[in-house]
Amino acid sequence: LQVPNNYETDLIFPIIEKTSKLALVSYAEADDVTKTSLKIIGDHMRAVVFLISDGVYPSNIGRGYVVRRLIRRVVRTGRLLGIKGDGNGNPEAPFLPILAEAVIELSTHIDPEVKASKARILEELRREELQFVQTLERGEKLLDQLLDNALSVTHDKGDADKPCLSGKDAFLLYDTFGFPVEITIEVAEERGVSVDMVEFNIEMENQRRQSQAAHNVVKLSVGSETELTRTLHDTQFLGYVTLSASAVVKGMLVDGNPVTQVSEGNDVEILLDRTPFYAESGGQIGDNGFLYGLQSEEGKLKTIVEIKDVKKSLGSIFVHKGTVREGRIEVGAEVDAAVDANLRQRAKVHHTATHLLQSALKRVIGQETSQAGSLVAFDRLRFDFNFHRPLSEHEIVEVEMLINRWIGDATNLQTKVMALSAAKEAGAIAMFGEKYGEQVRVVEVPGVSMELCGGTHVMNTCEIHGFKIISEQGIASGIRRIEAVAGEAFIEYMTAQDYHMRNLCSLLKLKSEDVTQRVESMLEELRMSRNEVSALRAEVATLKASNIASKAFYVGKSNISVVVENMGEMDADELKSAAEYLVDSLEDPAAVVLGSQPGEGKVSLVAAFSPGLVNLGIHAGKFVGGIAKICGGGGGGRPNFAQAGGRKPENLADALEKARIELEQAISEKTV
After folding, report:
1. The Alanyl-transfer RNA synthetases family profile domain covers which part of the protein (predicted)?
2. Which of 19, 12, 152 is nearest to 74 (CA)?
3. pLDDT, tens digit, for every residue of 580-630?
4. Residue 56 is part of which domain span?
5. Last residue of a domain, one of 165, 194, 223
6. DSSP E strand boundaries for 433-466
7. Are 335 and 360 found together in one domain?
8. Domain for residue 575, yes or no?
9. For the segment 429-472, what is each residue's pLDDT rounded down to a tens digit?
10. Where residue 259 sits, what CATH number does that domain have?
11. Which residues contact 300 (CB under 8 A, 6 or more apart)?
């Protein structure tokens, strides 16, 4: 059957038909604009489903951002078509999973893996749509106002030029409200307004620079034409084979400015011709250690510089950040550079453990998961990865057992330098978006992992000793983070845990295996005790309330009962119980306003109005909010019941007096 375009083939048209049904439109009878919207949804949904099936999850980086942009365009286009809900009477439900089912059904004979991943695809689309709808609702109102302003300014000036939304406004939407700039551009174009992307990009660059400055990244930008930057060459890194080496000081910086000499007690950034120090990169932090200088004539120790960090700048120039502890250091001097061997070993252990962690995650939760960031430090490792849900306790234990088994296998690591194409062909994992040269370094744990990596690693997995995950949490949509310890840090962590457990066992007079059950029992006892206390306090509050019921006074021709009292130090729950008791015990119509000082610098207020009073048009929520302002607070609630708080207990008496006066006035006016 001949069709006029690709969209009406049996690969995409069933998705368009499903979309038309949700939007309550007929594709055949639709105008060109509606048909284009339906085609966009059909095309994008097909791409998104296959990408998620292949393990590309929505995120803010690399391929993940492509998926996120496609999803967002489908959501917004669907909303413009009038799609509300899943078509099954649930207006708040997401519609992407419904369309995805149509795509999955079409894929059965093309790629069976898509159907096998159905649950994962539908859940990812559901979560992403719901999250984006919240973003849309926050940003759309502000964007509409900004576009109205842009249009009105152009109209008032009588300009013939196209109205323009400023880059600062577009950046405000992006940075503060999380509103995607591509959606801003699309909506603006629909309204006949352009977006100043030059100014937007300037704002983005300013933010990037501020963020970079906040991380104290070393920059050798002190005049690219100075003698220092013209004569600098890449630093020769010796740290793969040695932890100490002689080197020549080629340049120094103090506060970003080039100097020739630095004396004792001053911070300095030192550039060497070669170094055993590893510079921060690939997630691994820079080495610590010392630079030693010898006095040439007498051979006595002249200079000691403590190195606390090493970073890269201008390609592969290593910047050694430290403090002169003894003597002075000069440009041109020869020094002995010595890396702290213990800290380097800790970093090596954590870096190799990070590779094992990635392999273990792929085996336990699926090959589609991938690294999204990492930190290799002396005291721990941190690994960010793409995944749509928290790991279960069973999965965490399985990951730990796999890694510790690989550690126990005592496997020698293999490190090779090879062509990038050969490394990828061999199956080496590369970070998406990372730039690599023609020649790359490949670190392999045979049978376990193979990655492109320039970091330092152990010679044998047995050097890691042990591995333990200490936390697993979500840090962004579709991104999870694991923190773990290995090597000496693992031993220190487990020793500390054992110490705390032994102390707990001693206090509870129990064996370690019985602690969990006993703590659960104690928590249940505590919960029940708290409930009993709460019930008793509510009874006391009710008793106090019954004693003040006689203090009710009557207002208006209908003799409406009113109670306004200070209840001392009652907390908010007790105050609520007292107010509910009073308004139920007084004859309808009745009004109760109570206040208390539950703690230092705290005020609680509650207003309870009977149905008869509410029918007069007196609203508890609005009433108590105004009273709370006197105490430096605010609040509100339903017409018949509302609570509020404040920070100025010294004004409570005045607030209650105002409540009394305003209630009398309001009731008198309503009962005339």
Report:
1. 1-496
2. 19
3. 888 888 888 899 999 999 888 899 999 999 998 888 888 888 888 888 989
4. 12-194
5. 194
6. 439-445, 449-452
7. no
8. yes
9. 876 556 678 889 999 999 999 999 999 999 999 999 999 999 99
10. 2.40.30.130
11. 294
